[in-house]
């Protein structure tokens, strides 16, 4: 049998790329890889009862794991926030907390959050699709639904 040294090199390169999670060509990191880790809430903007979008005084953390899990927690500093106007369906008593699995569609710049547990129990079992933008160390997340008008900015921890 004829030896093909080039074939061994190609197979070894493919194996190394698979193990390292990168492509043979060394292209940029995938968005899903860039999402992994902890994110600190920078800004949450949501509509008021009058329809004007305003910044909300809150703090929070978003975590993505390499194996496809995520969790989010947001605490409104004014407990009245999150109970009228903005994303009421996500917070209760000025607090938002949920966890589950996520999938990223890099072509559409969307991530889908499959809610497995949440403070607001009506969210459990829902698939929440979000539009995202990664810029440097910042992640901007908006709803994919045209009926929701909030926006969140997160910074890598």
TL;DR of this structure?
The chain is mainly beta and 157 residues long. The chain is 13% helix and 45% strand. It has an 8-stranded antiparallel β-barrel.
List keywords for this structure.
157 residues, mainly beta, 9 strands, Lipocalin
Structure, explained:
The protein is mainly beta and 157 residues long. The chain has one domain (31-156): Lipocalin, CATH 2.40.128.280. The chain is built from 2 helices and 9 strands. The protein has helices at 5-20, 31-35, and strands at residues 37-47, 53-56, 58-64, 69-76, 95-105, 110-118, 127-135, 138-143, 151-156. The protein has an 8-stranded antiparallel beta barrel with strand order 1-3-4-5-6-7-8-9. A hairpin with a 4-residue loop joins strand 3 (58-64) and strand 4. It is globular, with a radius of gyration of 20 Å. It starts with a helix and ends with a strand. Residues 5-27 and 82-87 have low confidence and may be disordered.
